[in-house]
From TrEMBL:
A single MF term (Gene Ontology): DNA-binding transcription factor activity
Region (Disordered): 1-24
The keyword DNA-binding appears for this protein: yes
Species whose genome carries this gene: Amycolatopsis alba DSM 44262
Name of this chain's protein: TetR family transcriptional regulator
Length: 199
Protein backbone atom coordinates (compact mmCIF):
# COMPACT_ATOMS: atom_id res chain seq x y z
CA UNK A 1 0.00 0.00 0.00
CA UNK A 2 1.37 3.37 -0.95
CA UNK A 3 0.88 6.64 0.94
CA UNK A 4 2.45 10.06 1.33
CA UNK A 5 6.15 9.70 2.22
CA UNK A 6 6.34 13.12 3.89
CA UNK A 7 3.03 12.86 5.76
CA UNK A 8 3.86 14.41 9.15
CA UNK A 9 1.52 12.12 11.12
CA UNK A 10 3.01 8.97 9.64
CA UNK A 11 -0.44 7.61 8.72
CA UNK A 12 -1.21 6.20 5.29
CA UNK A 13 -4.64 6.52 3.74
CA UNK A 14 -6.39 3.15 3.69
CA UNK A 15 -8.11 4.08 0.43
CA UNK A 16 -4.88 4.16 -1.57
CA UNK A 17 -4.40 1.26 -3.91
CA UNK A 18 -1.20 -0.10 -5.47
CA UNK A 19 0.81 2.62 -7.15
CA UNK A 20 -0.79 5.31 -5.01
CA UNK A 21 -3.87 5.58 -7.24
CA UNK A 22 -7.48 5.78 -6.10
CA UNK A 23 -10.56 4.41 -7.79
CA UNK A 24 -12.61 7.16 -9.44
CA UNK A 25 -15.39 7.00 -6.85
CA UNK A 26 -12.89 6.95 -3.99
CA UNK A 27 -11.11 9.97 -5.47
CA UNK A 28 -14.40 11.87 -5.74
CA UNK A 29 -15.19 11.07 -2.10
CA UNK A 30 -11.74 12.21 -1.04
CA UNK A 31 -12.15 15.53 -2.85
CA UNK A 32 -15.58 16.06 -1.29
CA UNK A 33 -14.19 15.35 2.16
CA UNK A 34 -11.34 17.82 1.70
CA UNK A 35 -13.64 20.57 0.39
CA UNK A 36 -16.06 20.09 3.28
CA UNK A 37 -13.26 20.04 5.85
CA UNK A 38 -11.73 23.19 4.40
CA UNK A 39 -15.05 25.00 4.82
CA UNK A 40 -15.79 23.60 8.27
CA UNK A 41 -12.36 24.24 9.76
CA UNK A 42 -13.23 27.93 9.70
CA UNK A 43 -16.27 27.39 11.91
CA UNK A 44 -15.94 28.08 15.66
CA UNK A 45 -15.00 25.12 17.83
CA UNK A 46 -13.26 21.83 17.11
CA UNK A 47 -13.66 20.26 13.69
CA UNK A 48 -15.83 17.14 14.06
CA UNK A 49 -15.36 14.26 11.66
CA UNK A 50 -19.06 13.37 11.81
CA UNK A 51 -19.87 16.94 10.74
CA UNK A 52 -17.51 16.58 7.77
CA UNK A 53 -19.13 13.26 6.77
CA UNK A 54 -22.60 14.79 7.03
CA UNK A 55 -21.60 17.88 5.02
CA UNK A 56 -20.42 15.80 2.06
CA UNK A 57 -23.14 13.14 2.32
CA UNK A 58 -20.99 10.09 3.04
CA UNK A 59 -20.86 7.60 5.90
CA UNK A 60 -18.32 7.98 8.68
CA UNK A 61 -16.78 4.65 7.68
CA UNK A 62 -15.95 6.07 4.25
CA UNK A 63 -14.38 9.12 5.83
CA UNK A 64 -12.26 7.02 8.20
CA UNK A 65 -11.01 4.87 5.33
CA UNK A 66 -9.54 8.02 3.78
CA UNK A 67 -8.52 9.80 6.99
CA UNK A 68 -8.18 7.58 10.09
CA UNK A 69 -7.84 10.56 12.43
CA UNK A 70 -8.94 14.18 12.62
CA UNK A 71 -5.32 15.28 12.43
CA UNK A 72 -4.77 13.24 9.25
CA UNK A 73 -7.62 15.16 7.64
CA UNK A 74 -6.40 18.56 8.80
CA UNK A 75 -2.87 17.82 7.61
CA UNK A 76 -4.17 16.93 4.15
CA UNK A 77 -6.36 20.06 4.03
CA UNK A 78 -3.25 22.15 4.65
CA UNK A 79 -1.09 20.18 2.22
CA UNK A 80 -3.69 20.68 -0.51
CA UNK A 81 -3.89 24.39 0.26
CA UNK A 82 -0.12 24.74 -0.11
CA UNK A 83 -0.17 22.73 -3.34
CA UNK A 84 -2.90 24.94 -4.82
CA UNK A 85 -1.06 28.10 -3.77
CA UNK A 86 2.20 26.96 -5.32
CA UNK A 87 0.71 25.84 -8.64
CA UNK A 88 -1.27 29.09 -8.89
CA UNK A 89 1.98 31.05 -9.39
CA UNK A 90 2.83 29.54 -12.78
CA UNK A 91 -0.80 29.60 -13.94
CA UNK A 92 -1.10 33.30 -13.14
CA UNK A 93 2.13 34.10 -14.96
CA UNK A 94 0.74 32.44 -18.08
CA UNK A 95 -2.29 34.74 -18.02
CA UNK A 96 -0.97 38.03 -16.61
CA UNK A 97 2.01 40.34 -16.61
CA UNK A 98 4.37 39.57 -13.72
CA UNK A 99 3.31 42.37 -11.36
CA UNK A 100 -0.37 41.66 -11.99
CA UNK A 101 0.27 37.94 -11.49
CA UNK A 102 1.97 38.70 -8.17
CA UNK A 103 -0.97 40.84 -7.03
CA UNK A 104 -3.43 38.10 -7.98
CA UNK A 105 -1.29 35.51 -6.22
CA UNK A 106 -1.35 37.63 -3.07
CA UNK A 107 -5.16 37.47 -3.21
CA UNK A 108 -4.76 33.69 -3.07
CA UNK A 109 -2.32 34.06 -0.17
CA UNK A 110 -5.02 35.70 1.94
CA UNK A 111 -7.25 32.61 1.55
CA UNK A 112 -4.28 30.34 2.32
CA UNK A 113 -3.52 32.34 5.48
CA UNK A 114 -7.01 31.68 6.84
CA UNK A 115 -6.71 27.93 6.34
CA UNK A 116 -3.17 27.88 7.77
CA UNK A 117 -4.25 29.73 10.89
CA UNK A 118 -7.22 27.47 11.51
CA UNK A 119 -5.38 24.20 10.82
CA UNK A 120 -2.34 25.13 12.91
CA UNK A 121 -4.62 26.07 15.81
CA UNK A 122 -6.25 22.62 15.64
CA UNK A 123 -3.26 20.25 15.39
CA UNK A 124 -0.43 19.36 17.74
CA UNK A 125 2.51 21.76 17.92
CA UNK A 126 4.94 19.15 16.54
CA UNK A 127 2.65 18.59 13.56
CA UNK A 128 2.26 22.25 12.61
CA UNK A 129 5.99 22.85 12.97
CA UNK A 130 6.61 19.96 10.58
CA UNK A 131 3.96 21.26 8.18
CA UNK A 132 5.47 24.73 8.24
CA UNK A 133 8.96 23.35 7.57
CA UNK A 134 7.75 21.27 4.61
CA UNK A 135 5.74 24.09 3.04
CA UNK A 136 8.31 26.89 3.31
CA UNK A 137 10.46 25.65 0.42
CA UNK A 138 7.69 25.23 -2.20
CA UNK A 139 6.06 28.55 -1.27
CA UNK A 140 9.41 30.30 -1.43
CA UNK A 141 9.98 28.84 -4.90
CA UNK A 142 6.58 30.12 -6.03
CA UNK A 143 7.40 33.61 -4.74
CA UNK A 144 10.78 33.55 -6.46
CA UNK A 145 9.16 32.48 -9.74
CA UNK A 146 6.88 35.53 -9.61
CA UNK A 147 9.61 37.92 -8.51
CA UNK A 148 12.08 36.68 -11.13
CA UNK A 149 9.55 37.28 -13.91
CA UNK A 150 8.97 40.81 -12.62
CA UNK A 151 12.66 41.55 -12.25
CA UNK A 152 13.19 40.30 -15.78
CA UNK A 153 10.60 42.63 -17.35
CA UNK A 154 11.55 45.54 -15.08
CA UNK A 155 8.24 45.81 -13.24
CA UNK A 156 9.60 44.53 -9.90
CA UNK A 157 12.55 46.13 -8.14
CA UNK A 158 15.82 44.26 -8.70
CA UNK A 159 16.61 43.85 -5.00
CA UNK A 160 13.31 42.10 -4.19
CA UNK A 161 13.99 38.75 -2.54
CA UNK A 162 11.62 35.85 -1.91
CA UNK A 163 12.77 35.55 1.69
CA UNK A 164 11.69 39.13 2.44
CA UNK A 165 8.26 38.53 0.93
CA UNK A 166 7.82 35.30 2.90
CA UNK A 167 8.58 37.11 6.17
CA UNK A 168 6.03 39.81 5.36
CA UNK A 169 3.18 37.57 4.21
CA UNK A 170 3.67 35.16 7.13
CA UNK A 171 2.07 37.75 9.38
CA UNK A 172 -1.28 37.23 7.68
CA UNK A 173 -1.82 33.86 9.36
CA UNK A 174 -1.35 35.53 12.75
CA UNK A 175 -4.26 37.89 12.22
CA UNK A 176 -7.76 37.15 13.46
CA UNK A 177 -10.43 36.32 10.87
CA UNK A 178 -11.92 39.80 10.93
CA UNK A 179 -8.47 41.38 10.59
CA UNK A 180 -7.63 39.27 7.55
CA UNK A 181 -10.85 40.41 5.89
CA UNK A 182 -10.49 44.06 6.92
CA UNK A 183 -6.74 44.57 6.65
CA UNK A 184 -5.29 41.66 4.71
CA UNK A 185 -5.96 42.94 1.21
CA UNK A 186 -4.77 46.43 2.11
CA UNK A 187 -1.53 45.07 3.59
CA UNK A 188 -0.91 42.97 0.50
CA UNK A 189 -1.62 45.96 -1.75
CA UNK A 190 0.98 47.95 0.18
CA UNK A 191 3.42 45.08 -0.28
CA UNK A 192 2.83 45.03 -4.05
CA UNK A 193 3.47 48.78 -4.21
CA UNK A 194 6.67 48.30 -2.23
CA UNK A 195 7.89 45.69 -4.72
CA UNK A 196 7.07 47.82 -7.74
CA UNK A 197 9.96 49.40 -9.66
CA UNK A 198 10.03 53.16 -9.21
CA UNK A 199 10.41 55.42 -12.23
Amino acid sequence: MSGYPDHPSGHVSASAESGGTLRADAQRNRERILRAARDLVREPGELKLNAVAKACGIGQGTLYRHFPTREDLLVEVYRREVEDLVTAASRLLEAHRPLDALAAWFDRVAAYARVKRDVFAAVEAATWRDLAAHSLGPIGEAVELLLAAGRSDGSIRPDAEARDVIVLISWLSRLEEAEIDARGQRLLSILVDGLRTRA
